[in-house]
Amino acid sequence: MSHLLAFDIPGGWGTTLGIKTLIVMGLIPVGALVLGYTFLLKMMSHMQSRVGPMDPGGFHGWFQLIGDGIKFIQKEDIIPAGADKRVFKMAPAIVVMSTFLMFVVLPAGPNAVVAGALHKGQGGIDVGIFYALAVSSLSVIGVLMAGWASSNKYALIGALRAAAQLIAYELPLVLAVVGVVVQAGTMNLQGIVFAQQQGKIFGWSGIGSPFILTQFVGFALFMVAAQAELTQPPFDMPVAESELVAGYMVEYTGFRFLFFFIGEFGTAFVYAGLAATLFLGGWSIPHVNGEIANWIGPIVLFVKIMLVAFLMFWARFSYPRLREDQLQALAWKWLIPISLINILVTGALKVAF
Amino acid sequence: MIALLSDQHASSELTEYYRQYLSVGVFVLASLVMVGAMLGVGYFLRPTRPQDQKYITYESGSDPFGTFGQQNVRYYVYALMFVIFDVEAVFVFPWALNADGASHGGLGWFGFIEIFVFVAILVAGLAYLWRKRLLKWA
What we know:
The structure holds 2 protein chains of 2 kinds. Chain A is mainly α. Chain A has 12 helices and 2 strands, in the order E-E-H-H-H-H-H-H-H-H-H-H-H-H. Chain A has one domain (80-352). In chain A, a hairpin with a 2-residue loop joins strand 1 (2-4) and strand 2. In chain A, helix 1 packs parallel to helix 11 (291-318). Chain B is mostly helical. The relative contact order of chain B is 0.05. The interface between A and B is large, with 88 and 75 residues.
């Protein structure tokens, strides 16, 4: 007998894993669509006065996303004659795989995490956040494969830009997390959630201790770096549509293009989830424990994900694109030194108190 | 493999350990299944009307020339710098897990000074690269 949220799953651990896998298989497209619909279509239309996505179907353009889906289904599957066909076909699968693997450690409740059963209050792969960041950079390989195999100049330039950008911003992303790990004393995401729920601010436990209060620098670094990892504006040099058409995605059509879309927005969903878990307390509400946490956990996490995603997309719709040299300078001359200072200050305070 | 999936050895620590990574393997398969299934469904729905012009590499409408674009070597420098600092991050994490004060069972000031020296050496490296103008996009 295993447990998942408020439900007892009859059958063994394998059955539970199967159910969790099916849930995540549904969650990734749905999460991508929710973000795409709420933010990319509606919020952008309101912020930038776009009329197109507000029109189809009458009320508030509700049909736009469905129409897009129908369009993708009807597209012919074209692989350019000059392309390296096997690599070309594998690339979107690797991007989607990276998104899938990140979901393994994201907890949505006291016992709702994919990897591993609940174990003394801790679940999931014990290196949690370290693993999540490691598999998130797997998508670089998919992007490089896509750009290289397309045998298209735009695609190759886009892929190289993407690789340079993703590795440059990988560092502040990882280093921003170190502050949280220092404070929580664990890399296990479930452990980090509990550390925030049961934490105290100078002996006062009213709101727990969400790490955004102490790690606000880390939070800012994480959000900027995540934005760059997602190749969203203002860091969208690799897919800059006005100069590179669509970068490494230029030769992809139909469903294969859709995989990159799902990869991007699914990953945005997970990054928002990771930021919510690391800095906002994840699925937990302070002083809410026991059976009720099983019910409200996913809802609380979803609300926090939408809050964080709102910030991400707000920045996306508000800033102009950075130039390649500005982009590298921001990472190397600002974010990395700041994150190193953040680590040392956090460490000193941790030892002192 | 089958033994891991059943509940018979649930109490074993080792089973638990392997199961966590087995889930990763299952997710790799799940992602491939999803990609395959969507492409399979698409196969029955999408049209196929091959024309030679459709398979020409896209280059803003003009005929493509040459094979590949030339790329500047400057990306390589960034890749090398990345390796240095990424390895650093790996070494910072073990300290981060034990950063607590000595009275709480952590490494205390000893650990902090160690990591301070470690980071300082790397910052010196970054300063050197900066001074050498390798961070400048030229």
